[in-house]
């Protein structure tokens, strides 16, 4: 667990704060401002609950059952029934970081004072995060409209002391036991609280923010891999010149090209074929157009980040409390379309960046296209297969990524007796994006692994200091250079770990400084 404490209620949760809580286990506390806002909203709900006029979400049923007025003495049961019935997830457990992200984002919405929960309910949610208690959330159950109902219901169930959780050590146990061990008492939900705890887009938003964080690192790493491939395949760096990028002024393209230029600076391999004797007119698209593809990916990630920023500043609930006007209003802000669309866009990005990476890798292995390197970079071709099947692994992943790029957000399916007749499927879009990010990581790692082997085979020509630092990292991590065939899977997994951790990027940046 981290010793850091993230204060919730001074404004939108930042990306850095979300990552600290979700991945690093940072503790959480509500600010005084948040406590005041929550209390003011609760006072409005209490007044409406006591009024004879029915108010949706407070003294009525929900969804298609919203026309039924619920007597005062049955409202606590209504909240329990809502959470228990909606905690209907199925399938494998969702990752701890995702559950912590969605819990933090729900707490952030509660802290705005637009949901009507009690202060003690919001503080208990903060307590679960601080003590590392993670409710068990299942893979399936959210349609991404009326929020991520089933995932959030599993979290609300834990606040009631019901269902299963994992403690800070990862041990599976009943929620009541985990709460007791942490010195926390479960809450008995009252009017409006059950609905306020489950009616948000927090799961899909949390996964979007984490994916953006990962993709920004991976796209810089893809530039590193591309530079190694350009160098290892005796391609030119002149196509990355800033004056060429300026005549098509996409910002991401300019950044990627600038990265490639600085990564290839002082390369002995590039210098060896820069003179008048070079008869290469144009390089293949997968080499020459790397900035165009990587850059378009960057621009798409930036668009997704702008959507995420607006969502982080939002209070998603229905009905919503307008405390200053002392009223509660129904609305449609729970619809996940804005988030679902960009989740799908990013799956396309992951697939295409992986696709061009695989094409660069494949060129290394073909004797007709690799400019003097041995077939498949094998030590003794025919006896040895070199990296032949590493490219098969890449190809299998890229094929899977293309399937994952099919949008989920166009696949609405009606629910709740046709009351909820158009849904976003944003949760599904987020789940497949997580698989896409993992696949891209693996494809880029195999390109780095293969390009490093090729650069070693170019000796005595020296790679650039930046790409040489990456080769050095691989060798220092136990990934051997060229030689007879050996068990390749452990080397691939080691390269994947180095890419995923950011170590490959850090090795290059130790020479270049921070890449764009």
Automatic annotation (TrEMBL):
The keyword Cytoplasm applies. The modification 2,3-didehydroalanine (Ser) is found at residue 146. The keyword Transmembrane does not apply. GO terms for cellular component: cytoplasm. One of its GO terms (biological process) is L-histidine catabolic process to glutamate and formamide. Pathway: Amino-acid degradation; L-histidine degradation into L-glutamate; N-formimidoyl-L-glutamate from L-histidine: step 1/3. Its main location: cytoplasm. CDD domains: PAL-HAL. There is a cross-link at residues 145-147 (5-imidazolinone (Ala-Gly)). PANTHER family: HISTIDINE AMMONIA-LYASE (PTHR10362). This is Histidine ammonia-lyase. It comes from Nocardioides agri. The lineage of its organism: Bacteria, Bacillati, Actinomycetota, Actinomycetes, Propionibacteriales.
């Amino acid at each position: 667990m981290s010793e850091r404490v993230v204060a919730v209620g001074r404004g939108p949760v930042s990306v850095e704060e979300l990552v600290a809580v979700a991945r690093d286990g940072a503790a959480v506390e509500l600010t005084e401002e948040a406590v005041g806002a929550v209390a003011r909203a609760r006072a409005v709900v209490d007044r409406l609950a006591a009024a004879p006029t029915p108010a949706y979400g407070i003294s009525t049923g929900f969804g298609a059952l919203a026309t039924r007025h619920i007597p005062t003495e049955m409202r606590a049961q209504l909240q329990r029934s809502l959470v228990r019935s909606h905690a209907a997830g199925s399938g494998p457990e969702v990752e701890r970081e995702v559950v912590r992200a969605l819990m933090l984002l729900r707490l952030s919405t509660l802290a705005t004072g637009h949901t009507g929960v009690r202060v003690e309910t919001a503080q208990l949610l903060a307590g679960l995060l601080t003590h590392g208690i993670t409710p068990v959330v299942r893979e399936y159950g959210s349609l991404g409209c009326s929020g991520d109902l089933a995932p959030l219901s599993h979290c609300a169930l834990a606040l009631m002391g019901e269902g299963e959780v994992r403690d800070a050590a990862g041990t599976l146990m009943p929620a009541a036991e985990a709460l007791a061990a942490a010195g926390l008492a479960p809450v008995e939900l009252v009017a409006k609280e059950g609905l306020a705890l489950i009616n948000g887009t927090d799961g899909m938003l949390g996964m979007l923010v984490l994916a953006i964080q990962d993709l920004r690192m991976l796209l810089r790493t893809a530039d590193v891999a591309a530079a190694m491939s350009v160098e290892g395949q005796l391609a030119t760096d002149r196509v990355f010149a800033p004056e060429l990028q300026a005549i098509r002024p996409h910002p991401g393209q300019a950044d990627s090209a600038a990265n490639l230029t600085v990564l290839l600076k002082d390369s002995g391999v590039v210098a060896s074929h820069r003179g008048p004797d070079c008869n290469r007119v144009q390089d293949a698209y997968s080499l020459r157009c790397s900035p165009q593809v990587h850059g378009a990916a960057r621009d798409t990630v930036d668009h997704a980040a702008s959507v995420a920023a607006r969502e982080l500043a939002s209070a998603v609930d229905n009905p919503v409390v307008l405390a200053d006007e002392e009223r509660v209003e129904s609305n449609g802000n729970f619809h996940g379309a804005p988030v679902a669309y960009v989740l799908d866009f990013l799956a396309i990005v992951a697939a295409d960046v992986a696709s061009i990476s695989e094409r660069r890798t494949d060129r290394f292995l073909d004797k007709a296209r690799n400019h003097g390197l041995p077939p498949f970079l094998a030590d003794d071709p025919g006896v040895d297969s070199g990296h032949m099947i590493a490219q098969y692994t890449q190809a299998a992943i890229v094929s899977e990524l293309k399937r994952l790029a099919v949008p989920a957000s166009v696949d609405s399916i009606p629910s709740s007796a046709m009351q909820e007749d158009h849904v976003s499927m944003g949760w599904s879009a987020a789940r497949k994006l997580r698989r896409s990010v993992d696949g891209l990581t693996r494809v880029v790692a195999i390109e780095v692994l293969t390009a490093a082997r090729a650069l070693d085979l170019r000796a005595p020509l020296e790679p650039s200091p930046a790409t040489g630092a990456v080769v050095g990292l691989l060798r220092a991590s136990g990934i051997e250079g060229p030689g007879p065939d050996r068990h390749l899977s452990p080397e691939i997994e080691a390269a994947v770990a180095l890419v995923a951790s950011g170590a490959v990027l850090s090795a290059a940046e130790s020479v270049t400084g921070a890449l764009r």
